[in-house]
C-alpha cells in the first residue's frame, strides 16, 4: 500500500519541475512514508486501543442495500448507488434520497394591494435549485399592528408561527392570521382594507427543511490498531493507509464543509481532532462547538455544534449515561431559534457497540430520552408561550429491525420482545421511553 501511495504521488508530481522543487517533493514523499511506517509499527510497551472494547463480538452484522430496478448492484459502490437512485431499501426499510431540494431565496410582493385588483408575488429560487410552481396560501392579519397596553400604544411584535394541519391536503395554520385564499394570485376585497397580508409558499413535501441537521461518527483514531496484518484489522476491507487520521481528517472536514448545516452532532471525536482542526473549521463558517469528553479513560468524546446566526445557547451541560442511573449530571444543549424564538433541546449519544447486547442499547436509549424529556418539560413549564422541541442524535449502533428503533419509534419495547432473551438474568417488562410519573 505504501508503494502504491508513493507511486500515486510520483505520478501527481510528474510534471516539469526544477531541481529544488523535486527535492521538496521527494522530501514530502519520504515524510509521508516515515509517518505511515511509524503508525504501522507497534510501539513497544504501548497498550493496544483494542483493549478498550474488551467484549468485541465475532458476529458479522449484515445490512442489505437494495435499489429497485437497479441490476448488478453488488458490483457498484455505495457512492454509485446513492448518486444514481432516489429510493433505496436499507435493511428492508425504505429511504428517499433528496439532492438539491427546491429552495426559495427571496419571496416579495412589490405591487400595492388594492381592493378588486389582483396581486402576484415575485419568486427567486436559490442558485442550483429546481424551479417549480409553488402552491401559494394567502392569509390576512387578524391582530392590529398597534396594541393598547395599560392605556399606552405598543407595537405588536409577536412573530408568526406556521403549523401544517392534519389531513390529505397540505394546508397550514398561521398564528395571528386568518386564511383567505389558495392560488397564484389574490384579489383583496373591501374587508381587507387596512390589513396586512401574509403569504405562505408551499414547495411540496420534498422542499428543503427549515433546519438542516448533520450527524456523523467520525471514528476516533485511538480505536484503530493498525500494527497487524491487513486481514486482522477491525476494518479489514479498507487499506491501512486510508484508515490513518492524516488521510481521513481532511476528507471528514471536506464533507462537513459541503453541508450548509444548522446543527451538527459528531461522535468519536478525538481530542486532537477537536483541538487542532474542528474548532478552527467551525469558527471559519460561523459555527459554535460544544465538546464533551467521555467519562472513561479515553481521549475522545462527542460534539454538538450550531450556526451562531441561527441559534443562541441557553443552557449546556455534559453527562454520562451511567451517571444518569443515579440521577446525577446531564448532557444537553438547549438552543433558542433566533428566527422563531422556539427552544430546541439537543442531545447527542453513542450507544454500546456489541450486537450481542441489543437489549442494553434499548436501556441506554431509554435513560437518555427520559433525561432529555425531563429537561424539555422544564423549559415548557417556564416558557408556556414557547414551542420547545427535542432532537436526539447520535450513533445508536443499531438497525431499523433492532430494539432501539422499535422503542424510539413506537414508544415501547414490550416484555414479549425476543430481544430480552439475550440475557437470562433479566425479567422482561414493558420498557417505555417516556416519563410515566409526569404524564
UniProtKB/TrEMBL annotation:
GO cellular component terms, semicolon-separated: mitochondrion
One biological process term in Gene Ontology: nuclear-transcribed mRNA catabolic process, deadenylation-dependent decay
Organism domain of life: Eukaryota
GO molecular function, one term: 3'-5'-RNA exonuclease activity
Keyword check for Hydrolase: yes
Keywords recorded for this protein, A-Z: Endonuclease, Exonuclease, Hydrolase, Nuclease
Designated name of the protein: Endonuclease/exonuclease/phosphatase family protein
Amino acid at each position: 500500500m505504501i508503494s502504491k501511495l508513493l507511486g500515486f504521488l510520483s505520478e501527481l508530481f510528474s510534471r516539469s519541475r526544477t531541481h529544488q522543487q523535486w527535492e521538496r517533493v521527494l522530501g514530502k514523499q519520504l515524510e509521508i512514508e516515515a509517518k505511515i511506517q511509524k503508525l504501522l509499527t507497534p510501539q513497544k510497551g504501548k497498550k493496544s486501543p483494542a483493549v478498550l472494547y474488551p467484549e468485541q463480538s465475532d458476529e458479522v452484522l449484515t445490512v442489505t442495500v437494495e435499489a429497485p430496478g437497479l441490476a448488478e448492484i453488488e458490483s457498484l459502490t455505495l457512492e454509485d448507488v446513492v448518486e444514481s437512485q432516489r429510493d433505496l431499501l436499507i435493511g428492508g426499510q425504505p429511504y428517499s434520497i433528496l439532492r438539491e431540494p427546491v429552495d426559495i431565496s427571496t419571496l416579495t410582493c412589490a405591487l400595492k394591494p388594492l381592493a378588486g385588483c389582483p396581486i402576484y408575488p415575485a419568486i427567486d429560487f436559490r442558485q442550483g435549485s429546481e424551479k417549480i410552481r409553488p402552491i401559494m396560501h394567502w392569509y390576512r392579519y387578524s391582530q392590529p399592528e398597534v396594541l393598547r397596553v395599560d392605556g399606552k400604544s405598543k407595537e405588536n411584535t409577536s412573530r408568526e408561527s406556521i403549523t401544517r394541519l392534519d389531513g390529505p391536503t397540505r394546508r397550514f395554520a398561521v398564528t395571528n392570521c386568518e386564511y383567505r385564499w389558495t392560488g397564484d394570485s389574490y384579489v383583496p376585497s373591501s374587508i381587507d382594507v387596512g390589513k396586512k397580508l401574509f403569504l405562505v409558499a408551499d414547495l411540496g413535501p420534498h422542499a428543503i427543511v427549515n433546519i438542516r441537521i448533520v450527524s456523523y461518527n467520525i471514528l476516533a483514531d485511538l480505536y484503530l490498531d493498525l500494527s497487524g496484518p491487513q486481514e486482522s484489522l477491525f476494518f479489514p476491507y479498507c487499506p491501512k493507509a486510508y484508515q490513518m487520521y492524516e488521510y481521513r481528517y481532511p476528507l471528514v472536514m471536506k464533507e462537513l464543509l459541503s453541508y450548509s448545516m444548522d446543527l451538527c452532532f459528531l461522535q468519536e471525536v478525538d481530542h486532537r481532532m477537536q483541538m487542532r482542526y474542528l474548532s478552527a473549521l467551525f469558527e471559519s463558517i460561523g459555527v459554535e462547538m460544544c465538546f464533551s469528553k467521555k467519562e472513561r479513560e479515553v481521549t475522545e468524546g462527542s460534539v454538538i455544534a450550531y450556526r451562531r446566526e441561527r441559534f443562541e445557547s441557553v443552557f449546556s451541560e455534559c453527562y454520562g449515561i451511567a451517571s444518569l442511573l443515579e440521577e446525577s449530571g446531564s448532557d444537553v444543549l438547549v438552543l433558542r431559534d433566533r428566527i422563531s424564538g422556539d427552544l430546541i433541546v439537543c442531545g447527542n449519544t453513542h450507544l454500546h457497540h456489541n450486537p450481542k447486547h441489543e437489549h442494553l442499547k434499548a436501556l441506554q436509549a431509554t435513560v437518555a430520552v427520559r433525561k432529555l424529556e425531563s429537561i424539555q418539560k422544564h423549559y415548557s413549564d417556564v416558557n408556556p408561550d414557547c414551542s420547545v422541541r427535542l432532537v436526539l442524535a447520535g450513533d445508536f449502533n443499531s438497525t431499523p429491525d433492532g430494539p432501539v428503533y422499535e422503542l424510539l419509534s413506537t414508544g415501547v419495547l414490550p416484555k414479549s420482545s425476543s430481544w430480552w432473551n439475550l440475557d437470562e438474568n433479566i425479567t422482561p417488562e414493558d420498557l417505555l421511553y417516556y416519563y410515566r410519573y409526569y404524564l
